[in-house]
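Lesson 9: reading folded outputs for more than one chain in a single document. The general rule is that every protein is listed as its sequence immediately followed by its structure tokens, and records are never interleaved. Here is the first one.
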Amino acid sequence: MADTETELARLVTAAKPKSFWLDRPDAPPARKPLRGDLTCDLAVIGGGFTGLWTALLAKQANPGRSVVVVEGNRVGWAASGRNGGFCDASLTHGAANGRERFGDEFATLQRLGEQNLTAIQTAVGELGIDCGFERAGTLEVATEEYQVVELREAAELDGSTFLDAAAVRAEVNSPTYLAGAWDAERTALVDPARLAWGLAAACERIGVRIVERTPATGLAGDADGVTVKTAEGVLRARKVALGTNAFPSLIRRLRPYIVPVYDYVLVTEPLSGEQLAAVGWRNRQGVGDVSNQFHYYRLTADNRILWGGYDAIYHFGRHVRMTYDQRPATFVKLAEHFFATFPQLEGIGFSHRWGGAIDTSTRFCAFFGTAYHGRVAYSLGYTGLGVGASRFGARVMLDLLTGERTELTELQLVRSKPVPFPPEPFAYLGVQATRWSLARADQQSGRRNLWLRALDAAGLGFDS
């Protein structure tokens, strides 16, 4: 075992400590920061997917409106450039979560989510964004006997195709698979950094101004609008949209609703033709197992395997720090699980390793609202499914800023809030107790202990 751990540590240490998606020689050059004073109709705080979709849709709807995107680092640098590239139709972090929390409007949310995914696909084509968009779907796999029945029932309910052990291994060949469910339509795979860069370029082509390395430090409202304070300047706007993800919100009362949970990813070296044949994967689906502590994985355009998930790490105090992006123990654990899933790839190396913060809410999907007398809108709490849902969040914010009632603003999803997290040290203790309990449930055929049942009863729903 010691020799194995040493070899795994060697493999992951050799990987570059940077997001594979962002590690590109053709990444766009840096944009200038904001210095001095600037005035605009709409200020968008955050240069990730939420902010970029907001700016693009706002400018497309009203070309005469002046729009400025303010990014604290680089466009797509945070969650938008570090995720697995799963662009899902779900707005509710999966059907089970959606049915439980929004049963009366679940069918509407499914329709809106599928329309949203199709709109992203259309926009990528019309805007000429080269992000490797593949509507390949997802394959959920059971790796324990008790999961097979659950997967079959979920497939029947959701309209996915149930696959027995032989059928699922014919799709992707792993000795750990006991069954699978393939949804071929409701997920696309993308290169997320190229999607962010493409959206930013599309924004600039129609007149949106983007400033980088300009952290927003505060908001102040007055009769004429909202002032966005930055380190070296001031941006005065009639309206503001916040897409700040896991970073501390500029609206302090929102901070209890989010905790930053760190997720980690490995990417292999490109598979040879022989290695790819040994794995199969002809249909290039995204894959995820159905354990509480689950893995997600996929092929990249050059046939590497991106392998992430399992550990979800919360640091005391809700801090977001660059030092948390690397966690050697987690990378070794991920490598161990990778080779258990694909023993036929023994010896392949890893090219990249990284981590990043997920803006986690207690209902596992985004929440929305306004502040400063309706002049500021926010969309937060995507909990790892923001690649697709961020465009929907942008639409919600723009509708909220009009002050008018629309189909989106009348949704229970939009009008309600998740349960806030408690203050420290209770948040830290609660998250750790939940992680331990979920791991125990995976080891005990899915049986949930008293702590998890209490969370279920309280509507916190920690089930993934």
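And here is the second record, again sequence then tokens.
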Amino acid sequence: MLTLYYSPGACSQAPHILMHEIGTNHDAVKVNLRSKTLDDGSPYLEVNPKGSVPALRLDNGEVLTENAVILQYLGDRAGSDVLPPVGDFRRYRVLEMVNYITTELHKSFAPLFNASAGDETKHLFRQQIAHKLDYVDRRLGAGPFLFGDTLTIGDPYLFVISSWADKMIGLDNWPE
């Protein structure tokens, strides 16, 4: 059985949501990111030496890390259109959006989570995030998902990022 290592409210919520949506049987193990320990007190760094979530332990014992990779792995095994098949151009559009969320949006939040980042830095990053959310807003179609009526691997990830944006900059400029 797959085991997802997660922390509440972190980006690991995205594969957790996806696993529920596609019906993937799995265990979920909570990680304390401050102490780098699991609920049972064991060291998380033995699971993922990077110390970040998510991590996904596969049936064969291998561990995958990095949100975009885990989402793609799950999408490839979903047996649905959450990640279109290789060769279908829609697949590359979905992966393009997941990579945008990962590299442009997700990473832009780092200073906002950093207590030592100054107000000026945080203001600059809030402006950058808003600009990037404008792009996503223009990209959204009739919905309810990123690519219309079909849930893709990008939707749970954008949901997590949107919840961060709501708490840290507000979503008044993007009402829908």
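What the second record shows: The radius of gyration is 17 Å.
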